[in-house]
Amino acid sequence: MTVPANTQSQHNPNLARHVGHHDLALPGAGDLLHGTVLRPPDMRWNGHAYCGPVLQHIQVDPARHVPGVVDIVIRHNFVAVIASQPSQAAHARAQIQAQWRNAEPQRNAQLPNAGQSDATPPPAAPSTTLSYTWVNTPDDAPVWAIARHTSTGLTIWASTGRANQLRAEIASLCGLPAEQITLVANGLPGEGYDTAVDAALLAFGRGKPVRVQHDTTAAPTKITLELQADRTPASQYIERANIANARRPSVAALLCGVEHQYAGTIAQSNALYGIPVSQQSAGNAYSIGPANDTPTAASVFARESFFDELCALQNHDPVQARLDTITDPSGKALIESVAQQAGWFDQPQPGAGKGFACAQIIDNEQDPPQTVWSAWVAEVAVSGNAIDITRLTVGHTASSLASASDTDKIENQVRDTARGLLGAPDTFDQWADANANTAGALTLPEVSVVPQQSAVGTPLAWHPNAQLPAAAAIANAIYKATGTRIRQAPFSANSLLSSTETTENKRNKRWAYGLLGGIAAGAAGLVLTALPLRGAIAPVAVDTSIYSAAAIERGRLVALAGDCMVCHTAEGGIENTGGRALDTPFGTVYTTNITPDPKTGIGNWSYAAFERAMREGIHRDGRHLYPVFPYTAFAKISDADMQSLYAYLMTREPVSATPPKTELAFPYNARPLMAGWNTLFHKNEVYQPDPTQSTLWNRGAYLVQGAGHCTACHSPRNSMGAEKSGAENFLAGGFADGWEAPALNALSKAPIAWTEDTLFDYLRTGYSSVHGVASGPMGPVVQNLAQLPEADVRAMAHYLAAINPPPASAEPSALTAAKLEEASRSNVGVMTLPGEALFEGACAVCHDAREGPPLFGARPSLALNTNLHSDHPDNVIQVLMHGIDDPTGQGLGYMPGFKDSLNDAQIRELIEYMRARFAPGKPQWQGLDDKISSIRQMHGH
């Protein structure tokens, strides 16, 4: 049975009201176990069964030793971990050493009754082959499921639109009668089919409820279709797709070896305007994407765009060509009606274009199957570099009528469909929480709805499948208006703008404007930067009432990304009131008060003064700021983000506080000399996206290079305190506040290569099971990143991973980790070192797996710790001296400092032992005594 959790769920006919004797109260957090699943790489199926990589060998002992692990579940190729906490389950999953081998190659997959014809392969003749892509962007909403198995049955709290199929599948996998399975809607908007089955499998026979959280950072799914016409005119089309046109079972069921009996779904006719279509997989099998991924929308977009392109090649009118080949009277009548109402054969105005697309959809999920014809005419107008959809004419006819709707409602649905295809611009400075309602700014097109013949005189009906031709109609209209084909949908605003210019024109414009603009801006900037004395900007009274809540929230995110409150808050002080001491090779610099207090803060700073400080390093009164304030990075922040940051800071609580004055020795106290430094080392330029890279990459680069100012710590500096130039020095490692900021490029000393996933874990939680715990100055950075939208942290991880990708021949990280751990355990040569006893007394209880479960939080592996493999001992000394008293996340635990309990000689002996045992391939550090003595004098973090 299925039980609704809210009033919205009650409208689903598959949701039953009878709850029987099951306890439907959601289990409390303290009662839950947590599960996570280890998926094979590159999962595939052939429309019936799993045919991707299969489990050849697995070693789970390292995972079982992780504290909190309850069980490791292995069923065919399904591997999962159950633990007391999510972090423990994730850590254990990373310790599993799984070797996968490719399954036996198969011939191209075929789906019965999925729209393919039985025609013979086309002859070797001149053909036309084009590829089209449809991008399904995953919902950012969290998706989770909880399952509990008792003597009375199995209860699953989940979200799905396929309740009957889900219940039947779980019943089959668990060997339970379907009536003993209760589905309770958890109220989440996402599709939780896979998560529900995972939770059910892990909870079955467990005695305690198990919660499974779906990975919400999944990349967009690209459904690629290749259409081929064997000759012109064509006698057969071949359609190859990477996603099966079938409702797949759960990933868990496929991995458990369940054979799937094909069930009909929504599909196109197996002919394209009277010509047979052979549907095939793009390779030997289909990719396994999200559970709700089906290529019907992609197939309509591809076929209708392809047919339009063939008509253009043959100089045929696309509407007349369809009318000449269609034999179905209802489809033919619909096309004629829509074309007539749209004035299809009227000559469009200059700079405008009309596009046509239609579809015959067979909904095999209905009983009996329902046929829906729909047709769209889209009209666009080009003005300068902008494209507007000016009019949409839509009609459809169905073999059985859907629910009646009023005309206004249908017109709004048509507009919503069009706007849904026109995403917001892919901008590098768009925050994940600031994307809402961007489509609402688009010009609303005129909508004409052609009524069905059978519905004349009655309220109009609207079928959801009637929207499928929209993307192709818009793309075909853009081609008519601009001569540019768009073969990927949904469209970004950037792709629409770019279609208004030819490649050559864009290249010429970019060169000309870039050169002239660069000369002008460079000359002006050089003159200003070189001035040793800058004028003051008059104080103002700031009216903060003009700032919207959205702008302030965006500014808060910029401040978090830029760690404003980290540097501008003294230890134990009030946030943003300054006073934190920053140690530099030139002396100690104290941070300033950036609250909106008019006397001691920035309360009387105009936006112009604020922007000048952020981009040029000039105080409101005209003083040069020292580059320990990373204006060299902040200059890359976009105007929108800079304005939002100003709005946020100016709306904080003003606090009167005067921090200590920075007093450097001569000549560093001569601030006018900074003008020359700026001329040599500073470029006041906003980040420019790389057009050859993805939006995700550019977003990450913008955050890393700009607000995040990662290079301020992680890049080496020259004798004048400037970051060294050159690609080889970018993120090549540096020092800040007495701590080493390790290299993130090819010079990284990490024993296991960083990946996007491990970087994401580390930046998001402060912990990676194969790298260690964030400490020192990185701790508060992670605490701020944890408050950013998850997509932004993912973008940073994506960009950083791209800087130093692991070699293709690299062995699995779990295998490397196991080898390093084993080497540290069996290194008998270190047992005679004097540091052995110190380690056993001070460190082993938390850091040695031979000592049983950890007593305090996580057990970071020292064999995998980058600090022990570094060329510099600074971080190891810092942590041993000062400990970790403010862990970045729950469950990581605290580490005591030994500054007051171990003398310098003991610290040295302990470090020499740890270096020899956990980094046996590295030479011993030199000059430890001096370094230990120096760091002992520093304040901790």
UniProtKB/TrEMBL annotation:
Domain named Cytochrome c: residues: 550-653, 695-804, 830-918
Keywords: Heme, Iron, Metal-binding
Gene3D superfamilies per UniProt: Aldehyde oxidase/xanthine dehydrogenase, molybdopterin binding domain, Cytochrome c-like domain
PROSITE patterns with a match to the protein in the record: CYTC
GO MF annotations in UniProt: electron transfer activity; heme binding; metal ion binding; oxidoreductase activity
Keyword Secreted found: no
UniProt region (Disordered), positions on chain: 109-128
Bias type Polar residues, positions: 109-118
Protein known as: C-type cytochrome
Species this chain originates from: Pusillimonas minor
